[in-house]
Specification:
The protein is α/β, with parallel strands linked by helices. The chain contains 10 helices and 14 strands. The strands form 4 sheets. The protein has a 7-stranded parallel β-sheet with strand order 3-2-1-4-5-6-11, sandwiched between helices. Strand 1, helix 1 and strand 2 form a beta-alpha-beta unit. Helix 2 runs parallel beside helix 4 and helix 8 packs across helix 10. Bound molecules: uridine-5'-diphosphate-4-deoxy-4-fluoro-alpha-D-galactose. Uridine-5'-diphosphate-4-deoxy-4-fluoro-alpha-D-galactose binds next to helix 6 and strand 8.
Amino acid sequence: MSSSDNKLSLLVCGGAGYIGSHMSRMLSDYGHEVTVFDNLSTGYADALKWGEFIKGDLRNPDDLDKALSSKKFDAVFHFSGLIVVSDSVQQPYQYYDNNVTGTLNLLRAMRNHDVKNFVFSSTAAVYGDPVMDIITEDHPLSPLNPYGRSKLYVEEILEDYAKAYNFNSVCFRYFNAAGAHPDALIGEAHKPETHLIPNILLSSIEKGRKLKIFGNDYPTPDGTCVRDYIHIQDICDAHLAAVDYLAKEQGAHIFNLGNGNGFSVLDVINAASEVTGRKIPYDFEPKRDGDSPRLVADSTKAHNLLGWTPKYDDLREIIETAYRWHKNPAY
Ligand code: UFG
């Protein structure tokens, strides 16, 4: 199973969403056979331009059996997560039901259909409030919110699966996914929008819209939260490398995906002003529930073992691709 020599058949759960649609497109661009499974609750039908689409819900085992029976898949990518930290604090049941029970349903269906390779979207939120400036994968795990805990539980389940069932997996702990495909046919769109870069760009584009900055007394140089922004195409590159890695290395593997550079909310606003040529209006607001002051990755492990190096290492370039999309979004 090598992604460069063979045409692979891949199931992309959550392929109508932000990361899943970029992944489906990249796989299809490389000549692989893509099947998307999505319930369209937060994804977009207009993002389904690559591969066959099966509408279904992770919480419905019959939907999953139908999808897994449709072909013999070489691997499954799982992007179908609920991802809003503050919502997870308000609605833990929904987060555990979708992110943990839904994933267990998917794993059960994969075993029933003898599919043993799995690439899972985890998160930097598993680290909680970091005790190191730059976070390696062996940093203590102490998520601050149900979202982060839901992802950590799945990571632990995957370790148990590797030992008991010879089930192979890669978990990627994404730092802050950002940007859009450079041709801007697909991009980042959440309703309501909660993510920083889209909100900054919308405040720059929409007249009268003002950005809310959540918290200005964090223990960071300018008091706003620091994050590590990693381009969506770089994230997808890592997933492709993961499929090749799983062909050689059995077991459950975990990798950080980030650029290793920390930017505060105010840094991102300044970079976006340079890109758009406009001032971004903002107000300071109280802190959001469950936000960590600083999350910056050490991705040396992905570099060494997957041969992965992010191509977008300049924040302005990342924002530029997002801006191209936000100026004229297709959905
Ligand atoms: N922020 C604002 N105003 C906004 C939106 C965000 O000030 O309108 C701030 C947040 O408080 C935070 C930073 O900008 O400090 C980044 O916020 P995002 O919502 O863009 O991203 P998060 O860091 O909260 O969450 C993202 C993913 C999660 C993942 C996490 C790990 O959405 O899935 O990164 O770092 F877990």
